[in-house]
Request: fold
Amino acid sequence: MIALNSPVQPDLKKLLPYLEQINKNGWYTNFGPIHEEFRDKLEAYLGVQNLLLVNNGTSALQVAGKTLNTQSIITTPFSFVATSSAFLWQGNNLAFADIDRDSYNLSPEALSAAFDNGCTADTIVATHVYGNPCDVVSFENIAKTKNKKVIYDAAHAFGIKIKNNSVLNYGDASILSFHATKVFHTVEGGAIVFKQAEDYEKAKELINFGIKAGKGIQSIGTNAKLNEYQAAVGLVNLENIDNILEHRAQLFDEYCKGLKGLVEIPLWHPEANMNGAYMPILLKDATEREYISQKLLENKIQSRHYFSPSLDSVFSAQDNFGTSNSQHISKRVLCLPLHNKLSLIDIQKTITTLNKAI
Ligand SMILES: *Cc1c(COP(=O)(O)O)cnc(C)c1O
Reply:
């Protein structure tokens, strides 16, 4: 079977000394030395500041929202369910606006139109879907003129830069997921990158029961800390991340060459690099998608309907400012195998199978 995804296996020889060190330290969680080393190395690697490690990407979204005091969001219906549910879970109001037909990211035009048509959301929550950066400049302009905050769900965008500047440096906060299925992982884990140092300090308190070091309980918090074991996995996986990103980008490239003229793929941001996080293709309609995924499976090739259904169908009681592109695309999109263990031969087989089936 050619698997859709295959988690990166941490190098145990490199992991063991860290675990021994943790025993020696007798310090297993609560911002320990391995956590601090991982945080510093990650900030340096990504080219960001004010990076807070958390226990998963979903808490990252929730803590970012609490830190910025978000009450009401407008977001994309074309994303993983957590982008919406994280905010609904903490009682925020939610509205959907449509995605761009070509990039499948939240559309600045749809966003502006929603605000002109009575949307009162205080925060824009946009996903860099498949790691492809949103139109961050347009969002920045909208946020400025309408006095809104911006949170980016960058769960797919590890290592993505726009003109050599990390995509995580846009917006008031960006979140990452380090779940085992992601390009870079700590088994479970995540991070928030804040624009403002004060927001980082506030969030650090919120993820530790509202306790500020030396000052006691300052606010109503939660427990969303990353522990020393997870930080150790992060340090080990970070050592190999350049090879992984390079390999995945090469695989993505190979797909693009082979699929040219056969199927549509999302229009990539012209100034951004690629991390090969996903390999989405757009098919003619739901019937063709069903047929193609069946043919792939017959040839022992996995595929997945990422992202489907359009989230406004799931959360249908929420405000909706028009989601027809998301509705259409979510019924036609299919993700092909793409992971670090995939070979060029696997990709050739997938492309050949797809070609025959279409
Ligand atoms: C994986 C993912 C999340 C959730 O991250 P977890 O670490 O699994 O909680 C959120 N948003 C998007 C877009 C994701 O792909």
User: Anything to note?
Assistant: The longest helix spans residues 241-259.
